[in-house]
Amino acid sequence: MQINITPPVSFGKKYRNSCYTSEQKEIMRDIRRAALEQGWHDIYTGKPFSTNNPPSIEHFVPFSHKNKPQVQKFIEGGFEINGLENIFPTGRVGNAIRNDKSIVRTILETPRFLKRFLKELEKYRLYKSPLVDGKTWAEQLHATLLNNIEGLCTSVKSRKMYIHGSFAKAKKL
After folding, report:
1. 87: nearest Cα among 27, 46, 169, 130
2. pTM recorded for the entire structure
């Protein structure tokens, strides 16, 4: 008899009655298990996942943005808001703090997020299970990132990130 001490998948209060399929829930459980077993790190804090720092599932494109015109355009092209191309493990605190901010806003406010994500992405690439092919998952996440950071710029001289046309809100890298 195997005892599973991994906490159950937390979908948050606002998603309890959402449209996750049973397959999507199982994939999310698989990713959370892998985050614990493989020693992946939280992208927001840089700390490794553990029973004291359990992973939750984060969406690159927030679920609440699914009806926005730009996201609808992606969805019409085959993008799945709850698909592997849009989900990855993060700590619950960072996930809650980000709430429904765009990925560009998240990167501007927490530039280390991008560096940490790219580092963890290489770990995701090596993962293989009956539900998740890490190589494909990593490639899809990378494509989602690139599709959603339009307007994000950096200044080599000042080492700051900004959205094109709003240099006043730049953050030092």
Report:
1. 27
2. 0.77
Q: What's the structural domain count of the chain?
A: 1
Q: Which of 157, 156, 150, 155 is nearest to 169 (CA)?
A: 155
Q: Where are the alpha helices (DSSP H) in the chain?
A: 22-37, 69-76, 92-98, 103-109, 112-125, 134-148
pLDDT digits 0-9 by tens, 16-65:
445 788 999 999 999 999 999 999 999 999 999 999 999 999 998 988 88
Q: Is residue 2 part of a domain?
A: no
Domain with 128 in it = 20-172
Give dist(CA 31, CA 105) in Å, integer.
25
Report the phi/psi class of residue 61: left, alpha or beta, with left for phi > 0 and alpha for psi in -120 to 50: beta
Cβ-contact 159, 172 below 8 angstroms: yes
Note whether residue 92 is domain-resident.
yes
Contact 145, 79 (CB under 8 A): no
- Give Rg (Cα) of the chain: 16
The per-residue b/e assignment along 71-101, b for 16 or more CB within 10 angstroms, e otherwise, is beebeeeebebbebbbbbbbbbebbeebeee
Is residue 31 domain-resident? yes
Q: Report yes or no on 149 lying in a domain.
A: yes
